[in-house]
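Before relying on records like the one below, remember that each one covers exactly one chain. Contacts with other chains, cofactors or solvent are not represented anywhere in the record.
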Amino acid sequence: MLRSCLPILLLAVPQFLFCDTVVIDFESLSDSTSVTNQFPGLVFNDATVITAGVSLNEFEFPPHSGTNAVFDDSGPISIVFSFAQPVVSFGGFFTYQMPLTLDAFDNTSNQVDAVTSSFSSNLALSGDVGSTPNEFLQVAFAGGLSRVTITGDPAGSSFVLDDVTVKTPAVPEPPGFLLLIITVAVLFGCRVRILRQP
């Protein structure tokens, strides 16, 4: 009986549970390109593309995917978000030669989340014992992130970033009570339909 109602429930509920995810791998840009506003919804500062076999030492800083990554050119990388929906999380794969801090801020410049690298260095050949390159670091805030700052050496040239992941809600989430009412109404409708069948 309940099986005939499952398709209706699956259509009614998932739109409130999932996020839209944007992944940026920097493969569309060439070596030494300064990354600014090439990707809709994001504005980068102090980020420059480096390519394995060209200007990237891929033996110490292997890209997470493909051949490109970005590095902190001249100072900490900052990224400002301008998506239509609020950004609820930001993450990326980092290889670093000194401790790394990822700070997240809301639209009033209040720090709402922060994370620090697990090691002092996770370089592929000379990193700390037990470390591996491309550590995934992520910050999140349900109220919406407006920007993030990634700091290694304040002077720059201390880490690479690859496969940036930005998540925004697919649709605004309704209050829990409203979701409960929708679920009960769908189940009640299915029950009435089942009882009316001969």
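The first strand starts at residue 19 and ends at 24.
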